[in-house]
């Protein structure tokens, strides 16, 4: 087992066509069918999406114009009105889906709950009414800081129902990070829980909310608290309310607010190349359509499927493919609170067996940790209900792909390797499993309507098999609309690195890739200062800012180094202020400091103290060299711009 190195992926020639059996029953049954859809969409993207919008969604009012494109600003289905919570709930109630399981939830301690579409609709309406009573109005922002429990989905849908934008903050983020996001979004209310279960201990969420408010999240007027773990928590009178006290008397009648297509649906913060995370903005109709169609075709959704995506609702994968995409399609979506842990390393396989999961969607880092835990765990369970597997988050190394196909998929399930981003809203490059033969390590071909290309910095296409920048040439309905409160950053970050080509703006969000002679895309990873740790995106600058905010640190440079399970691990090179000496205690304190500032997901694996950092003559830190050092590799490439060569020699010899 190893990292997805350029060599291992370049040597990967195996192809896995779908079985006849799978293709015969699939929604999209052949390469020809895919190609026809692709060509039709490429020739007229607007018409392609318009037809799907008409067929797949409910509208209160039809749009006047499909696309208004004033680069880099796109508006889709202009003048239309709809509500995504109506599309996810109400419209199923008049069909056979009324009493179908919408959400199957399994808690870490073994408790469970199933909500039918009718029951989920009822709870969402109740919470929507509670939010209104607590002063939330259309256009307000609501923070959601929740464990993986049904109420997390209820909260998102309740916001959408009344036209309040949610911003979900992953429960692993610290109070400090939570505060920054609540302040940026100017959230009026926070929905949280007393705690959540994580590897048999309680994550004290409400406590973090209290801290975030003390730290200065002053726009927050109220906190709505769901009881989950039951330990004693502080409740501030007038400010904090228990959901279980308000729910019994809350009306279950709450018509969905008609929303303009381009009304704000949610903000989701993601790391970029500066210290400050960006609020990625998604709007109503285009996002609904895009997540709906991409899930339906890519995961070949059938009425009887039991679909499980193991992501957390705090990430885009949870938004698009646990909540909105599946429910808009009337599917059964599984939500699991737990994680594989020493007392139950096979818990994922238990969930599959217990509920007869047919479609399973997880991340390469999880797959690599399953490999480490051993085949005996999946082998001891009945996984025969599975018919389709998916992966997302980082390039998957062919070895992990093959293991996934064999040990989990029983050599019978196609694997969809889905390339996309927080910014894209939904899948961009992915196999359609009945149509496209897969190659381990490749996300294969673009989804119909997505015009992807590999270009150089001037925006000119590069030849097949040559590396370059992965760009998208035409807007799509699920694309982000802007950076919340910072349209200029939106333009700079995504539309200006690569020159517009022949007047066409190219969307570029940081990945390097190549395209082979069959038109298959091979994503190699980020080409900016963003690292991918266990499928989570972290800006190196963000971690550096956290480190230098500690009194002992003079300067910090953070790089990723290859890691067998996590993909990348965080290595920090630090120089200390006068009066501080490197020590194991200081190292420990600094790691904890990063956890406090950002969250456990950003804890450095390794800290290396150094007198100086290698810099160019103009004072820029030469991260390339540090990456080589962190990985234990020879220094590659040119070092002639280095200001002081002795810095490098000292670093090589261990400080
Ligand atoms: C970055 C986006 C989209 C949900 C998960 C992460 C990397 C994502 C793949 C894949 C190769 C992938 C890219 C991308 N990435 N999926 N299938 N193959 N790389 O969302 O936090 O917005 O991160 O994850 O580098 O830019 P995100």
TrEMBL record:
<dbReference type="Pfam" id="PF00501">
    <property type="entry name" value="AMP-binding"/>
</dbReference>
<keyword id="KW-0007">Acetylation</keyword>
<feature type="binding site">
    <location>
        <position position="548"/>
    </location>
    <ligand>
        <name>Mg(2+)</name>
    </ligand>
</feature>
<feature type="binding site">
    <location>
        <position position="537"/>
    </location>
    <ligand>
        <name>ATP</name>
    </ligand>
</feature>
<feature type="binding site">
    <location>
        <position position="553"/>
    </location>
    <ligand>
        <name>Mg(2+)</name>
    </ligand>
</feature>
<keyword id="KW-0067">ATP-binding</keyword>
<feature type="binding site">
    <location>
        <position position="317"/>
    </location>
    <ligand>
        <name>CoA</name>
    </ligand>
</feature>
<feature type="domain" description="Acetyl-coenzyme A synthetase N-terminal">
    <location>
        <begin position="34"/>
        <end position="88"/>
    </location>
</feature>
<dbReference type="InterPro" id="IPR011904">
    <property type="entry name" value="Ac_CoA_lig"/>
</dbReference>
<keyword id="KW-0479">Metal-binding</keyword>
<dbReference type="InterPro" id="IPR045851">
    <property type="entry name" value="AMP-bd_C_sf"/>
</dbReference>
<dbReference type="InterPro" id="IPR042099">
    <property type="entry name" value="ANL_N_sf"/>
</dbReference>
<feature type="binding site">
    <location>
        <begin position="393"/>
        <end position="395"/>
    </location>
    <ligand>
        <name>ATP</name>
    </ligand>
</feature>
<dbReference type="InterPro" id="IPR025110">
    <property type="entry name" value="AMP-bd_C"/>
</dbReference>
<dbReference type="Pfam" id="PF13193">
    <property type="entry name" value="AMP-binding_C"/>
</dbReference>
<feature type="binding site">
    <location>
        <position position="526"/>
    </location>
    <ligand>
        <name>ATP</name>
    </ligand>
</feature>
<feature type="binding site">
    <location>
        <begin position="417"/>
        <end position="422"/>
    </location>
    <ligand>
        <name>ATP</name>
    </ligand>
</feature>
<dbReference type="InterPro" id="IPR032387">
    <property type="entry name" value="ACAS_N"/>
</dbReference>
<feature type="domain" description="AMP-binding enzyme C-terminal">
    <location>
        <begin position="542"/>
        <end position="620"/>
    </location>
</feature>
<dbReference type="InterPro" id="IPR020845">
    <property type="entry name" value="AMP-binding_CS"/>
</dbReference>
<comment type="similarity">
    <text>Belongs to the ATP-dependent AMP-binding enzyme family.</text>
</comment>
<feature type="binding site">
    <location>
        <position position="534"/>
    </location>
    <ligand>
        <name>CoA</name>
    </ligand>
</feature>
<feature type="binding site">
    <location>
        <position position="511"/>
    </location>
    <ligand>
        <name>ATP</name>
    </ligand>
</feature>
<feature type="domain" description="AMP-dependent synthetase/ligase">
    <location>
        <begin position="94"/>
        <end position="482"/>
    </location>
</feature>
<dbReference type="GO" id="GO:0003987">
    <property type="term" value="F:acetate-CoA ligase activity"/>
</dbReference>
<keyword id="KW-0460">Magnesium</keyword>
<dbReference type="InterPro" id="IPR000873">
    <property type="entry name" value="AMP-dep_synth/lig_dom"/>
</dbReference>
<feature type="binding site">
    <location>
        <position position="550"/>
    </location>
    <ligand>
        <name>Mg(2+)</name>
    </ligand>
</feature>
<keyword id="KW-0547">Nucleotide-binding</keyword>
<dbReference type="Pfam" id="PF16177">
    <property type="entry name" value="ACAS_N"/>
</dbReference>
<feature type="modified residue" description="N6-acetyllysine">
    <location>
        <position position="620"/>
    </location>
</feature>
<comment type="function">
    <text>Catalyzes the conversion of acetate into acetyl-CoA (AcCoA), an essential intermediate at the junction of anabolic and catabolic pathways. AcsA undergoes a two-step reaction. In the first half reaction, AcsA combines acetate with ATP to form acetyl-adenylate (AcAMP) intermediate. In the second half reaction, it can then transfer the acetyl group from AcAMP to the sulfhydryl group of CoA, forming the product AcCoA.</text>
</comment>
<keyword id="KW-0436">Ligase</keyword>
<protein>
    <recommendedName>
        <fullName>Acetyl-coenzyme A synthetase</fullName>
        <ecNumber>6.2.1.1</ecNumber>
    </recommendedName>
</protein>
């Amino acid at each position: 087992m190893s990292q997805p190195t350029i060599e291992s992926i370049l040597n990967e020639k195996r192809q896995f066509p779908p079985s006849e059996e799978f293709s015969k029953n699939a929604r999209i049954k052949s390469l020809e069918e895919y190609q026809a859809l692709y060509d039709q969409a490429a020739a007229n993207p607007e018409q392609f999406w318009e037809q799907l919008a008409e067929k797949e969604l409910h509208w209160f009012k039809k749009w006047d114009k499909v696309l208004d494109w004033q680069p880099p600003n796109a508006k889709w289905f202009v003048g239309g009105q709809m509500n995504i919570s109506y599309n996810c709930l109400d419209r199923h109630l008049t069909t056979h889906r009324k009493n179908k399981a919408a959400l199957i939830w399994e808690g870490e301690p073994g408790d469970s709950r199933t909500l039918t579409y009718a029951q989920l609709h009822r709870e969402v309406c109740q919470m929507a009414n509670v939010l209104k009573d607590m002063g939330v109005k259309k256009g307000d922002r609501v923070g959601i800081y929740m464990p993986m429990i049904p109420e997390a989905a209820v909260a998102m849908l309740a916001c959408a129902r009344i036209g309040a934008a949610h911003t979900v903050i992953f429960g692993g983020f610290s109070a400090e990070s939570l505060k920054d996001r609540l302040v940026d979004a100017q959230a009026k209310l926070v929905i949280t829980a007393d705690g959540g279960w994580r590897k048999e201990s309680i994550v004290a969420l409400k406590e973090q909310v209290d801290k975030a408010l003390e730290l200065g999240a002053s726009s927050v007027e109220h906190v709505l608290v769901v009881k989950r773990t039951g330990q004693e928590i502080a409740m501030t009178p007038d400010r904090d309310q228990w959901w279980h006290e308000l729910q019994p008397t809350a009306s279950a009648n709450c018509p969905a607010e008609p929303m303009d297509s381009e009304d704000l649906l949610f903000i989701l913060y993601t790391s970029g190349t500066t210290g400050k995370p960006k609020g990625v903005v998604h709007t109503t109709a285009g996002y609904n359509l895009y997540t709906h169609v991409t899930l339906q075709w890519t995961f070949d959704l059938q009425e009887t499927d039991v679909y499980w995506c193991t992501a957390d609702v705090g990430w885009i994968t949870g938004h698009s493919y646990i909540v909105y995409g599946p429910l808009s399609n009337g599917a059964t979506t599984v939500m699991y609170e737990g994680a594989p842990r020493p007392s139950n390393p096979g818990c994922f396989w238990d969930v599959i067996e217990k509920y007869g999961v047919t479609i399973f969607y997880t991340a390469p880092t999880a797959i690599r940790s399953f490999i480490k835990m051993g085949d005996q765990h999946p082998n001891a369970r009945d996984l025969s209900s599975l018919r389709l597997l998916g992966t997302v988050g980082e390039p998957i190394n062919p070895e992990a792909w093959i293991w996934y196909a064999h040990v989990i998929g029983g050599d019978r399930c196609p694997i969809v390797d889905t390339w996309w981003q927080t910014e894209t809203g939904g899948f961009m490059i992915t196999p359609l499993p009945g149509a496209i033969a897969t190659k381990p390590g490749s996300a294969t071909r673009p989804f119909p309507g997505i015009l992807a290309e590999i270009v150089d910095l001037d925006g000119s296409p590069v030849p097949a098999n040559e590396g370059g920048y992965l760009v998208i040439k035409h807007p799509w309905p699920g694309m982000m609309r802007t950076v919340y409160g910072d349209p200029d950053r939106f333009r700079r970050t995504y539309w200006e690195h690569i020159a517009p080509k022949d007047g066409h703006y190219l969307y570029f969000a940081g990945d390097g890739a190549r395209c082979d002679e069959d038109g298959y895309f091979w994503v190699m990873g980020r080409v900016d200062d963003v690292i991918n740790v266990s499928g989570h995106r972290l800006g190196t600058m963000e971690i550096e800012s956290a480190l230098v905010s500690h009194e002992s640190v003079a300067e910090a440079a953070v790089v990723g180094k290859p890691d067998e399970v996590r993909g990348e691990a965080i290595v920090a090179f630090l120089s200390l202020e006068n009066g501080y000496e490197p020590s194991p205690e200081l190292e420990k304190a600094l790691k904890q400091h990063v956890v406090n500032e950002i969250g456990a997901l950003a804890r450095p694996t390794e800290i290396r103290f150094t007198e100086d950092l290698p810099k160019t003559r103009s004072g820029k830190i030469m991260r390339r060299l540090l990456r080589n050092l962190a990985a234990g590799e020879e220094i590659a490439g040119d070092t002639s711009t280095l200001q002081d060569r002795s810095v490098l020699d000292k670093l090589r010899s261990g400080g």
